[in-house]
Amino acid sequence: MWVNTWELADCVKPDGELSNTICDIAISGLQESCPDKKVIFPYIFTKYLMEHKFNSKIVQKYLRKDDKYKLNHKDLLSFPLLQTLGVPMKGKKPIGHWDVLSLNMVAKRFEILDSLRGEDDMDMIEHANKLVETIKMMYKVNYSDSYRQIDDFELMYISVPKQTNGTDCGFFMLKFLELWNGSVVSAISQDQIPALRMVLTSLWLEHDRNELINWRILLDNNMV
């Protein structure tokens, strides 16, 4: 996985929006410290599920039923969701919004965690339920013989901390993915987001898998 420094700089600057690629880089870091009973899926996995691309390599990776990804043995499955808000205008960048869908096997329910919208938002509910139905279909095909079945699980809105602008949803979403354990809401607030942007940028750039040696110079040039 790779990303241009200009894309990273555009994402982590004040009021920058989380891109799909940066999202999956962040999630790859979260996966390294994820509890054994929890799975955090990359956005590309969610995207392909929504598009019913079940034979793609990334989907098959998580459906391979080995000790690491035997999903019916997990307690919490977390999916990043990206939704286009409104009708895209010609010549203008679509407005995207990030939230989290969680499959809570212990509480026997699906959960939506959204930093912007309330529990009565029908666009949010309809979009989340599209993924819910796809997950149920995928699970039935791959785990029909499991003692754990999810056909009767319903969607529940989880009250979480809210953003106060239109650009920080992606960073709230990353914290929800990291900290949601199926019962306790993460204590993240709007005034913590600027520091979170800097901390995450440092973690990504200083990671052992970052092969760009002169990233400090390139990032400084792109931030000017």
Describe the structure.
The protein is of the alpha/beta class and 224 residues long. Helix content is 40%, strand content 14%. It contains 8 helices and 5 strands; from the N terminus they run ααβααβββαβααα. The protein has helices at 5-12, 20-32, 43-50, 57-62, 122-142, 169-179, 193-205, 215-223, and strands at residues 38-40, 76-85, 95-104, 109-113, 155-158. It has a 5-stranded mixed β-sheet with strand order 1-2-3-4-5, sandwiched between helices. Helix 1 (5-12) crosses helix 8 (215-223) and helix 2 packs parallel to helix 6 (169-179). The two termini are 25 Å apart.
List descriptors.
five-stranded mixed beta sheet, 8 helices, alpha/beta, 224 residues
Rg, rounded, reads 18 Å
- Helix coverage percent: 25-40%
Note the gap between the termini.
Answer: 25 Å
Beta-sheet strand percentage?
Answer: 5-15%
User: Which stretches are low in confidence, meaning pLDDT under 50 for 5 or more residues running?
Assistant: none
Form type: globular
| Quaternary organisation | single chain
> Major beta sheet, specifics?
5 strands, mixed
Structural class: alpha/beta
Quickly count the helices. Answer: 8
